[in-house]
Amino acid sequence: MLSRSLQRAAVAGVAALLALGTLTACSDSSTDSTGRTTVVTGFYPLQFVTEKVGGPDVDVVNLAQPGAEPHDMELSPAQVAQVANAGLVVYLKGFQPQLDEAVTQNAADRAFDVAAVTPLVGGPNHQGANEEGGNAPDPHFWLDPTRLAVVAKDVAKKLAERDPAHAAAYTERGDALVAELTKLDAEFTAGLANCQRHEIVTSHAAFGYLADRYKLKQIALSGLTPDTEPTPQQVAAVAAEARQYGATTIFFETLVSPKVAQTLAEQVGAKTAVLDPLEGLAEGGTGDYFSVMRANLATLRTALGCS
Predict the structure, then answer these.
(1) pLDDT tens digit string along 77-123?
(2) Half-sphere exposure of 32 (CA within 13 A, CB side)
C-alpha cells in the first residue's frame, strides 16, 4: 500500500500512461460482444449497486481487486484503457486519485461521481485520533444504507440515459434495490435502538455515516485513510476514552493489519472483533453488501449490549 506522499508521486508518474490510454483506446468498445453496456466502477459498493441495477443488461468491470485496500489503488495501463472505453464510469471523486485522473483524461463525458447525489461530510464522527479538525470529507457514505439508496436511484437514471432500450428494466431493478436498502435501514434502526453503550472504538474512521445514522459515537484510532499509523500518545488517548465509556470491544477490519487494534484491546482489557467497512470484499470471501452489513449489525449488537 502506498503512503500519501508516495501516492502523489505515483499519480504524477501515471500521467504518461493516461495519455497513452487516450491515444490507444479502441474507437468505441463501450458495449461488449453481446451488446451490453460496459460499466467501470471504482470499488466494491459501487460495483454492487451497478450489478444490482444493471442486471443482465450491463457488463461491470470493478477496478479494485478483492482483498486489496482501494484507497491507494494504482491503475495499470490496461485499466486506464478500460476507463477510456467504458460506456459509463461510476466512481467517487477524491477516493481513488489515479481513477480521478484517468476519468479527467479519458472519460469525463461518461462519468458519474456519486458524491454529486450524496454529498460527503466531515465532523466529529468522521475523524481519527491522528487527525485535527475533523472537517475533511469522509468518503464512506455506503455504510448508511439510505445514502446508498440515493446512489442506486441515480445509477438507474444514468444507465437509462446510456441505454434507453432497457430504461424500464433499470428503473425496476433500481426501485427493488432501494426497497431492499430501506428494509436494511429499518433493521439497523430497530437493532440498535436499545443498547447499553453507544460508542464504537474502531481502528479506522470509516464508520462515521453509520454512527450518524444510528445515533452512535465513533472513537477511531486512524483517520479516514487506514495507512496512517497513530502515535503511542494517540493510542493512549483513545484507550482512556475507551475506558471512560466502558468499551468491551475494539473493532478492526478485514483489509488492514489488526495489530494496533489488538494492542489497544490489551491496554483496556477488551476483546477484538471485525467490523467491516465494506470498501472491498475479502479475497476468497463469500457474501455481498447485504450479508456483510447484517453481520456488522450482529457484531454491533453484541458489542454494545443491545436488547
Answers:
(1) 999 999 999 999 999 999 999 999 999 999 999 999 999 999 999 98
(2) 13
- The whole-angstrom separation of Cα 244 and Cα 248 is 11
Residue 56 near residue 39, CB atoms below 8 Å: no
Report residue 156 as a C-alpha cell. 438507474
Counted residue by residue, the chain has a size of: 307
The amino acid present at 15, given as its one-letter code, is A
Percent of the chain at pLDDT > 90 equals: 70
Evaluate the CA torsion angle 244, 250, 253, 257 in order and state its sign: positive
- Going by their DSSP bridges, the two strands 111-113 and 199-204 should be labelled as unpaired
Q: Quick one: which of 136, 93, 138, 85 has its CA closest to 112?
A: 93
Per-residue exposure over 144-173, b if at least 16 CB sit within 10 Å of its own CB, e if not: bbbbbbbbbbbbbbbbbebbeebbebbbeb
Between vectors from CA 175 to CA 180 and to CA 42, what angle results, nearest 5°? 80
Phi first, then psi, for residue 271 (nearest 5°) are: -100, 170
Query: All 3 cell numbers of residue 28?
Result: 468505441
Asked if residues 86 and 61 have their Cβ atoms less than 8 Å apart, the reply is yes
Q: Read off the DSSP letter of residue 230.
A: P
| Interacting residues of 238 by C-beta distance below 8 A, sequence separation 6+ | 129, 201, 219, 220, 221, 230, 264
Determine the pLDDT at residue 231: 85
- Cα–Cα dist 138/80, whole Å: 26
Other beta carbons less than 10 A from residue 291's beta carbon: 11
Exposure b/e, 213-239, CB count within 10 A at least 16 = b = bbebebbbbbbbbbbbebeeebbebbb
Q: Which CATH class is domain 193-304?
A: alpha beta
198 vs 151: CA distance, rounded Å: 28
